[in-house]
Amino acid sequence: MLRTLLCFTPFFVCLFWFITFITHYHKSDAAKRMLTWFLLTCVVLYLCHALFFTVGLPHPMECLWTLCSLSVYPLYYTYICRLVSPPASPHKLLLVMLPGTVVAAVKFFFPGEAIDDARKLLFTVQVFTVVSLGWRKLRAFDNMIADVYADTEGRDTSAVKHLLVAFMITSLFSAVANIFGRQCFAQSEWTILAAITPFSVMLFALSYIGFTRDFSYDQFAEDSSDSSELLPEDAVAMAENDIERNINACIIMRKLYLTPNLKIGDVAKATGICRTYISKHINKTKGVSFSDYINSLRVEHAKMLLAQNAGNTKIVTIATLSGFSSEQSFYRNFHKFTGMKPLEWTKQHLACNADTMRG
Questions:
Q1: Using an 8 Å Cβ cutoff, are 258 and 295 in contact?
Q2: What phi-psi label fits residue 91: left (phi over 0), alpha (psi between -120 and 50 degrees) or beta?
Q3: pLDDT-derived band of residue 138, with 50, 70 and 90 as boundaries?
Q4: Nearest Cα to Cα of residue 50 among 3, 12, 8
Q5: pTM (2 decimals)?
Q6: Does residue 55 sit in helix, strand or coil?
Q7: How far, in Å, CA of 252 to CA of 235, rounded?
Q8: What is the mean pLDDT of residues 27-52?
């Protein structure tokens, strides 16, 4: 009984989340819809896994397992692509499914060890390819987000990247399992538990993060599109005539950096300069992203408030007055730019003032 329950755990996890996703399918964005198909494939895959460990698989089901095992990683990569980029044409989805389909079809008509070895090799290649390319795409998207939004929390892909690291660890385990074969993990309940638990936890976390993530590429594309009347060529000409002064007057003198959830589009509207040029100008002259530039100004403002109030004002109030959207964002950015927590900085500041007065 325990053996059966352990074997079916990943199947039940995937089934639960697939039902959750499919009931919200028509309300979902394209990334979540792709994740729905990924979960459906996982449902079939882990059903085959459970049957293999309990009652065994007939040859047709072995071929279905082969198809699903060689499809989950390409489908997850397609999900990442849809999360951070415009939708690709449908035939590209068919292309990522093609290798697994071919191997499964060959296995159906020509079963043998050579086909199993080819499946193991292809699976291992898929694992490292998806993790490597997926990480690059997520990192590139986060860089683009940092050039559009001052507050990146809830918009960046940090959680997805952390999950990809977990995916990589479980993928290494999968690669080892494919090299040695599933039979070696069917010896006892303990080996099954060791094999099943990482996948169950990862699949639950992957599904939860995917389901609760509301920010999509479509929203990013809308917020980053240039609609300013001023063309980039005009902005270049303007750059020769105090473009720095215009941006500083808007962001610093008018204290636009204190605006919660500030976007580069807000600066574009205030200055009349297109968003793309503002982003490039900040990157070039400040050497940082738009997000880091704005948050560094916010941190300086927070330091001023901390110094004036000498720790008598609540941190959450300081964070709000400094333009941060959350206390967590304030702590993260304050430590990033000062190397200290707000209270540590305040104590050091008070100690330095006391030493100065004594001197």
A1: no
A2: alpha
A3: very high
A4: 8
A5: 0.84
A6: coil
A7: 20
A8: 91
